[in-house]
C-alpha cells in the first residue's frame, strides 16, 4: 500500500505530557509533509527527564501484533525511524521489523538512545549497549550523541577530544553498518562552551560539521527533535549537510524562543511556537567540510 506522501514508521515511546519522542516526532514530520505511522514501544504519563512517580505501560507484547497487521495490509514505508527502546527484546522486534519491511529498501534511521553526560540512563545497561551495536548494523543512518557514541565504541567519555579523534569514531561507527553517522553534542574545540554536530558519509567519504552556539539551558527532547528534522529534510530531498544545518538551526531557534519564558524546563522546548519555521525556504548556512 503506497502513500501519496512520504511515509515513516516511527518506533518510539509516547509521553502524555512533555515534548519528547512521539510527542515531537509526529508534529515535526507532519509539518514537513511526511505521514507518521506510530509504533509505540511504551506509553508514559510523563517523560522520565525530571518527573518523579510517572506511570508507564510497556507495549512490548503489543508490538508484534501491530507489525503483523501492517504487513497484512501491505503497508510500505519510505523510512523506518526508531528511538527509545525499553528492553533487549524490543531491539529484536525492531530488527525483525526492518527485515520484514525492507522490500522497498526504506531509509533506516536509528537513534541509539542509551545515555547522556557521560553515563547511561537509569533504564539502560551494558546488555542494551551490546544489543544496540547489533541493531545499528541494520541502519543507513544513526544519530548517537557524544556519550552514546563512546559507549557504542567502548571508548572513554572525555570532554577534551580532538577533531581527528571524532573523525576516527565516525568511521568506526560506520564500519559497524550505517553509511551515514551523525554524532551530536560533540565538544567544540574552537569554543569552550559550544558544542557541534559532526557527520560522516561513507559513500562520499566526506566529513561535515555544524557548530552549535552555547545557550545556558537544558531541555529534554532536543535529540528527538534534531533527528526528526534531519529525517524530514532527507525525505524532502535535501543533502546531508543541508539536513544537518536545518536540524541545528531549528533546535537553536526553538531554544532561543523558549529561553526567554519562565516555565519548567522539564516540559521541553516550546515546539508549538516554532513549528511553522520548518516550512521557510531552505537557506544554506553554517556547515563546514572537514578535510
- CA distance, first residue to last residue: 43 Å
What's the shape? globular
Oligomer: single chain
- In CATH terms, the superfamily is Ribokinase
Q: What number of domains?
A: 1
Summing up helix and strand content along with how strands pair, one would put the structural category as alpha/beta
What is the CATH first-level class name? Alpha Beta
Largest sheet, in brief, is:
9 strands, mixed
Number of helix segments? 8
CATH architecture: 3-Layer(aba) Sandwich
What's the total number of strands? 14
- Rg to the nearest angstrom? 18 Å
| Share in helix | 25-40%
Strand content: 15-25%
What does this structure look like?
This protein is of the alpha/beta class and 291 residues long. It has one domain: Ribokinase (UDP-N-acetylmuramoyl-L-alanine:D-glutamate ligase), CATH 3.40.1190.20. Helices cover 35% and strands 21% of the residues. It is built from eight helices and 14 strands. β6, α3 (88-100) and β7 form a beta-alpha-beta unit. The longest helix is centred in the last third of the chain and has 20 residues, at 240-259. The radius of gyration is 18 Å and the shape is globular. It starts with 6 loop residues before the first strand and ends with a strand. The model has no long low-confidence stretch (mean pLDDT 93).
